[in-house]
């Protein structure tokens, strides 16, 4: 893939007045951090920067790299070059801006930053977090006001029951079935008193309604007798309940209790891999990795947004990329575009 941004770290061994085509920059001895982008030809751009004694110098960084020693070049593959400006803002927080350097075509103060000593900070990892945040914010805008039928359930009890009903059942059916059940039995105490057959009737036509009726009655009984009528707020106890798996437990903990847990279904697993956030083979693997990389402020929204996106646009087969606002931030799309370019 040939689109992206990059970070260069270079060392200048002495104080100099750096003359470019348009300006002179007084630079001190020390370490310089430069962020750039290449809409096409990222590999060629990096190769050019590594070359000494260039016949033609186009950019400010060309002049600096004739004098400084490159310590590191890190590429970051992405189709949205606005992340270059986000990286500049990240660098600006720790380092000294060399005002006016490399930013003639944007509103940034600078794309070059100075430090007397080498700063060992994972700047691209921080950028990756900002990348994820940008994706979530785009999806929040896209699906604002488009609540799915099951998103009306907010309490731990409502979430637990609706999740159990939802197995092999469409959201629309789950929502109607759960609402009907909650009218008859709004709490574990009420549900415990109903027979499994009655519960099954109330949640029909949910898939496996008879089995779910038995399990829901058992769940209510356990919660009343062992947890004083309150849904457990920890994964270990939730997983002891009948018909409760890791996905349901994480959804209840994240959305019901505000815990830092990630609910990973097939949509979340598939889209997270397509975006390039993770590289995993199973939802279980995805959960472990996503828990370590997702920004905490968006942990609760992540599942719901990706489920909506998976149902409407990023489908398992033939995703509707022409309708997707994430294409410039998506590795799956960038790879496909590269393949088309090579074939043509």
From TrEMBL:
One of its GO terms (molecular function) is class I DNA-(apurinic or apyrimidinic site) endonuclease activity. SMART domains: ENDO3c, FES. Residues 165-312 form the HhH-GPD domain. It catalyses: 2'-deoxyribonucleotide-(2'-deoxyribose 5'-phosphate)-2'-deoxyribonucleotide-DNA = a 3'-end 2'-deoxyribonucleotide-(2,3-dehydro-2,3-deoxyribose 5'-phosphate)-DNA + a 5'-end 5'-phospho-2'-deoxyribonucleoside-DNA + H(+). SUPFAM superfamilies: DNA-glycosylase (SSF48150). InterPro entries: DNA_glycosylase, DUF123, Endonuclease3_FeS-loop_motif, Endouclease-III_FeS-bd_BS, HhH-GPD_domain, HhH_base_excis_C, Nth. Its EC number is 4.2.99.18. The keyword Ligase does not apply. Keywords: 4Fe-4S, DNA damage, DNA repair, DNA-binding, Endonuclease, Glycosidase, Hydrolase, Iron, Iron-sulfur, Lyase, Metal-binding, Nuclease. It comes from the Bacteria. DNA repair enzyme that has both DNA N-glycosylase activity and AP-lyase activity. The DNA N-glycosylase activity releases various damaged pyrimidines from DNA by cleaving the N-glycosidic bond, leaving an AP (apurinic/apyrimidinic) site. The AP-lyase activity cleaves the phosphodiester bond 3' to the AP site by a beta-elimination, leaving a 3'-terminal unsaturated sugar and a product with a terminal 5'-phosphate. Belongs to the Nth/MutY family. This is Endonuclease III.
């Amino acid at each position: 893939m040939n689109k992206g941004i990059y970070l260069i770290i270079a060392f200048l061994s002495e104080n100099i007045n750096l003359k470019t085509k348009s300006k002179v920059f007084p630079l001190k001895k020390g370490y310089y951090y430069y962020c750039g982008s290449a809409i096409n030809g990222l590999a060629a751009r990096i190769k050019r920067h590594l070359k000494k004694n260039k016949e033609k110098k186009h950019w400010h960084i060309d002049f600096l790299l004739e004098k400084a020693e490159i310590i590191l070049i890190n590429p970051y593959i992405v189709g949205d070059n606005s992340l270059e400006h986000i990286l500049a803002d990240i660098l600006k927080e720790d380092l000294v801006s060399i005002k006016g350097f490399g930013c003639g075509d944007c509103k940034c103060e600078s794309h070059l930053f100075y430090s007397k000593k080498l700063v060992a900070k994972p700047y691209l990892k921080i950028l990756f977090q900002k990348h994820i945040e940008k994706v979530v914010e785009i999806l929040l805008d896209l699906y604002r006001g488009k609540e799915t039928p099951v998103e009306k359930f907010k309490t731990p009890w409502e979430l637990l029951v609706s999740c159990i009903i939802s197995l092999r059942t469409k959201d629309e059916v789950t929502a109607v079935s759960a609402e009907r059940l909650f009218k008859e039995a709004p709490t574990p105490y009420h549900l415990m008193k109903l027979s499994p057959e009655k519960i099954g009737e109330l949640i029909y036509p949910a898939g496996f309604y008879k089995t779910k009726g038995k399990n829901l009655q058992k769940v209510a009984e356990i919660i009343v007798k062992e947890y004083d009528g309150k849904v457990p707020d920890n994964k270990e106890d939730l997983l002891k309940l009948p018909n409760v798996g890791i996905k349901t437990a994480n959804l209840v903990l994240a959305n019901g209790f505000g815990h830092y847990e990630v609910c990973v279904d097939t949509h979340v697993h598939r889209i997270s891999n397509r975006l390039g956030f993770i590289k995993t083979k199973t939802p279980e693997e995805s959960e472990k990795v996503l828990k370590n990389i997702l920004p905490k402020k968006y942990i609760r929204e992540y599942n719901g947004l990706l489920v909506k996106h998976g149902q409407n646009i990023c489908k398992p087969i033939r995703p509707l990329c022409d309708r997707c606002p994430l294409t410039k931030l998506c590795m799956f799309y960038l790879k496909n575009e590269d393949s088309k370019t090579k074939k043509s």
